[in-house]
Amino acid sequence: MFQSFFLTHPMFSKCLVLLCIVVLVPACAYDSEEDLFPGGDQCDTSDVSYAQDVLPILVNNCYACHDDANRQGGIILEGYDQLKVQVDNGRLIGAIRRNPGFSPMPKGSPALSDCFVDQIAQWITDGALDN
User: Which residue has the higher pLDDT, 93 or 10?
Assistant: First the structure.
């Protein structure tokens, strides 16, 4: 009798729901990939090449606005020679790092991942070769 009263009492239902919320909500507290997968894929900045590493980043994130056809802001990143101009004048790294005084790129989109920025920076540090 006590058990049936306890299980059907409205206060028990409310307490049970509250308990479920308190227990389950912290399970949803992770809000970044790094929290969900700590130590997962490491960013490889060794032996970064233009063709294998940098070009795919640019094609997928920059060419929509800065290819030869679009030329937004007068900036062309399509083709090694055009890209090298922006590398040499510091505008590429300043924009993707979103440094003060530079237009943050990609415009109107989230920043490139830290790994992509690190790979491009390493490629520049290594001489920005057409490799």
Answer: 93
